[in-house]
Each structure stands twice: as C-alpha cells, then as structure tokens.
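Batch job 17 of 40 flagged for manual review because the log was empty.
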Amino acid sequence: MRIALVGDRSPSVRSHVRIPRLLEALRERDGIALDPYWIPTTDTEGLERFDGIWMVPGSPYASEDGAVHAARTARENGIPFLGTCGGFQHMLLEYARNVCGLDVAHAENQPDDLREFLLTPLACSLAGHEGEVTLEPGTRVEQIMGRRTTVEAYICSYGLNEDYKQLLRSHGLVFSGHAADDGAVRVAELPGHPFFLAAMFQPELSGDGTRPHPVISAFAAAIAHHAAAATTH
C-alpha cells in the first residue's frame, strides 16, 4: 500500500525524522505495511494512484497551490487523508475555497494579501507546547481516542479564523476537537469519507516514536481497508 507524504522534506523538521520510524512501528505492531513516497508540494499531480495521503508538517510549504490540490485530490477521490499542523491548515483552506466558494488566504503564506484570511496568527504561539484537547462525542476522533480529552503536542503558530467556523460547518465539515482552555478549533473531519481528518496538533510527536499515536494507527487501518476494498471491485 502506497502512501504519499506530502510536504517539503527536511532533516530540520522533527516530524519528518519521526515519521519513517512510526511507519516501521506500524509494520511491527499493527501488521500494516505502508510504502511511503515523499511528495514535494511543488509536484502533487497524480496523487490519485496512492492508497493514502498524509499532508505532513513543515509549513510554509513551497507551494500553497500544490498543498491545496493534494487535499482536494484526497477529498474528491475518497482517498484516506490525514493532515497534521500545516496539513490541517491547508485542508481547511482547500475546503473553504472549493466547497464553500470562499476567496480566502493564509496569513503565513501571503501576509500582504488583500483577501480575508482563513488562517491567522494565534494570539499565543503553540510552538513547542502541549495542550489539552476536548473531543466531541460520537465523532471519529473521539471514537479513535476512546476518551473525551487528550493532551497533544504542537509546533504551530497559525489557526482557523473563528469567524469562518459556522460557514465551514454549514457546508458539512465537523469540528471534532477544541482547545480545552479557549474552545479554539484543533481537529476537523469530514463525515461520509473513508478517512478525512486533520489535526492542528502533531500526533507524530507523541511519545518516543516507537508506538504510533491512535490517530496514526486509525489512518493506517483506513488505508488498509480502502486498499482491500479497491482490489475487490
């Protein structure tokens, strides 16, 4: 099963170093073998051939358009998708533009843009911090975690402009995790999709890297299920 790791790979990004170890742990612990291909954001055409797409941290990406295209490919083709940190931001950007029809920008990518910003600087940067997240009952992420709260690691300075939250929700996006302190969005997911989930936190930084975070294990299981279903049709 082939998985596209969409992001501009760099040894200076902690998650990029951690992810290969997590994929090996998935093979050893869960028996799910994923063949990873690192895909730069400047080259995201043809992602339809992959069994899963993980948009990894490391923003600002080299190509905003490429990142948005990757999220759209996964959403429209029913390909299991996980977005973490920058992947979370660009999944929201894709949904706002292509589902909600909004002409919005990302403040990190285009700080001088005259359009309104969907993603804006956080009042307090979360880079290098951990925070408690409250999970909404009955959502996919709450079912994955098996509990209502979780403490997660962040390396992030941009989040959703809450002025757009209701509009995104009215177009079918579910905000399934929120910061316990101020209620800001931390997880978003799309019901009815094989797996379409993005988190502002970075599950790949959980623990020491020898045991995949439940979200990553669930993503891998969704890829396996999707690939198996595809071979039977």
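Reviewer: the log was empty due to a logging misconfiguration, but the result itself is present. Residues 136 and 176 are 5 Å apart (CA to CA). Unflagging and moving on to job 18.
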